[in-house]
Specification:
single chain; Immunoglobulin-like; 8-stranded mixed sheet; 1 helix; about 5% helix; about 50% strand
Length: about 110
């Protein structure tokens, strides 16, 4: 599986919902049955998490992953550029199918 690089653009204070479909090397959806999914947002690769995405899979056999963040959590992101990745993990495997920058624009109208 090749890591997909996706830069996400959000507005500070926005409710965030993004969906990804994970595809295996042979082109089929990656079966996520038995995997846990997590995603952290950090200002750089060595810092503590500034936020997390709530990760779910509405279609585990279809390889679908949803990332969500509440408006309260995204409002706490005060910088303009963060990094995130998505880790899917089983008892024997950890994979990172999605990564990128999270670019946060400040809210002008509140």
């Amino acid at each position: 599986m090749e890591t997909g690089k996706y830069n996400l653009h959000i507005q500070s204070g926005e409710t965030v919902n993004r969906q990804f479909k994970i595809i295996s090397a042979n082109g089929d959806p990656y079966d996520l049955t038995g995997y846990t999914i997590e995603s952290y947002v950090k200002p750089d690769f060595t810092s503590s998490a500034a936020a997390t995405f709530t990760c779910t899979s509405p279609d585990t056999t279809g390889g679908v992953i949803n990332l969500a963040m509440t408006s309260q959590s995204s409002a706490l992101l005060t910088g303009s550029c963060y990094y995130y990745d998505v880790r899917i993990k089983s008892a024997s495997t950890a994979l990172y199918p999605v990564e990128g920058k999270l670019i946060v624009s400040p809210s002008v109208t509140k």
